[in-house]
Structure formats: structure tokens, C-alpha cells
Specification:
This protein is of the alpha+beta class and 249 residues long. 37% of the residues lie in helices and 16% in strands. It is built from 10 helices and 8 strands. Strands 3, 4, 5, 6, 7 and 8 form a 6-stranded antiparallel β-sheet that branches. It has a two-stranded parallel sheet with strand order 1-2. The longest helix is centred in the N-terminal third of the chain and has 19 residues. It is globular and about 50 Å long.
Length: 249
């Protein structure tokens, strides 16, 4: 007859509970559970105007405003670029932890950080403006060509809106660039040595992704939208004859 295995003594159980393996399993379980929580979509920001460009009386944009009020005070593409140029400082993360902690954080997070953040923070501001003004924003992520450069050089994110059959408005950090042609051509002309990620490189910016780095990273796990399938809607402008000038104009 085989001997019956004696139950673990209390001291043995406590030893198991204090092992690194146990704490690792608990941490993984918590991470998986919390990832499931943050992956649930949230409501998109409310639409402010349907491309009318009609100004509603309100105070001028101020960095001290709460974000909802601030977005309502930014009527046009030009208002947006002026606000960004005057108040937002583009600064990349200093550490991997900082990158993961702040990746694609909402404008509220950048405001709490004295309006300082990397390009992946600014795109959230761009996307929100475009969506709230009836546009169809797409988040574009580009990275260096070649194996080693991908780990040594910076990646970059932009928001692209198609506002006419052959016209793009490309939100790139402080600027909004009017471009007649394809984004592929724009990339060749102004970002030589960079290419679009094969997966998650061109995705709709929907405003429904929770403000959590894991959710924002998971959002990139979707197939690229071909440029010919971009929906196009105009964005409000001060003067259509004088589009905002970017660094490539």
C-alpha cells in the first residue's frame, strides 16, 4: 500500500506563500485581471461641432481650463496649433518606466505634467480635437527601417485626417500640415528612413480606449487601414485660403 501523503504543515504553507514564484503568480493574475478591466471601451468624447466652423462665444483657450472646456474653446485647426505651439512642450520619456506609464495618456495627464509630453501624448490631443469636430482621425505609427535602428532611434506617432478625396491634414506635434497626395508620399518626402508599422501602424482613433497604457498598447494590435479606405470629412478652419503652415510647408 502506498503511504498517504501528509498535508502540508502550516509552516510549509507559509513558506510557499513567501516565495518569489508565488508573488509572481499573484502579480500576473492581477495584471491579467486589470488588463481585462482596462480593455473595456469607454464612451467617446462628445461631438462639439459637425465641421461647421461656426464660432460659439466662449473664452479663449487657456492651459488652466479643464479639458472639456478647453476643447470647446478650440474652434479650428489653427486654434489648436496655436495653443500647442504656445503651451505644449514636446519631450520624450527619460526611462522605459516613464514611457510605459505615460504612453498615449489623455490630455488631462499631459496637463498635470505642465503640458509636457512626447508625441504619443500630443496625438491624443490631436485625435480628440478632430473627433469632437466631426473629423475621422487615424493614428499613424512609424519606425525606422532596418533591425538595429528600430532599437536605437525614436519611433513617432501622428494623427492623419482625410478632408477631401486627395487632401490630408497631418497633425505632427505642434503643426497641422496640409498635404495634397498620399501619406506614403509624404513619408518618403519628409521622413526618409522611416516606415509605417505593418500591424497597428494605421488605425482609427476612436476615443473609446481607456486611459491606461496597456489599453493603448493593446489598441495597436489591429490590422492597418489602407489609405484608400480612409473616410474623409472636413475640419473647421479659419480661412480655407490660408491653411496652417507646418515645418514642411
Amino acid at each position: 500500500m502506498s503511504a498517504t501523503k501528509a498535508p502540508l504543515e502550516r509552516s510549509s504553507v507559509l513558506k510557499v506563500l513567501h516565495t518569489k514564484k508565488f508573488y509572481t503568480l499573484v502579480a500576473l493574475a492581477a495584471l491579467i485581471g486589470d488588463t481585462m478591466r482596462v480593455s473595456h471601451p469607454v464612451d467617446p468624447p462628445p461631438v462639439i461641432a459637425q465641421n461647421s466652423g461656426t464660432s460659439v462665444p466662449h473664452p479663449p483657450p487657456s492651459p488652466e481650463m479643464d479639458i472639456e472646456t478647453l476643447m470647446e474653446s478650440i474652434d479650428t485647426v489653427e486654434d489648436l496649433t496655436e495653443f500647442l505651439d504656445q503651451h505644449v512642450k514636446i519631450l520624450g520619456p527619460g526611462t522605459l518606466w516613464e514611457f510605459l506609464r505615460t504612453f498615449r495618456q489623455d490630455p488631462e495627464g499631459m496637463q498635470e505634467n505642465d503640458w509636457t509630453g512626447p508625441c504619443n501624448n500630443v496625438v491624443e490631443f490631436h485625435g480628440r480635437f478632430a473627433l469632437q469636430h466631426g473629423g475621422k482621425p487615424y493614428l499613424v505609427t512609424i519606425y525606422p527601417v532596418g533591425f538595429r535602428p528600430k532599437f536605437r532611434k525614436s519611433w513617432h506617432q501622428m494623427i492623419v485626417c482625410k478632408t477631401a478625396p486627395d487632401h490630408l491634414v497631418i497633425f505632427d506635434n505642434h503643426s497641422a500640415i496640409d498635404y495634397d497626395g498620399t501619406f506614403e508620399k509624404f513619408l518618403q518626402e519628409h521622413y526618409a528612413g522611416m516606415t509605417v508599422l505593418p500591424v497597428g501602424g494605421v488605425i482609427p482613433w476612436t476615443g473609446t480606449v481607456p486611459d491606461a497604457a496597456r489599453a493603448k498598447i493593446l489598441d495597436l494590435f489591429q490590422w492597418n487601414v489602407p489609405e484608400e479606405e480612409f473616410e474623409f470629412w472636413p475640419l473647421p478652419r479659419r480661412n480655407q485660403a490660408e491653411p496652417p503652415r507646418g515645418p514642411f510647408a
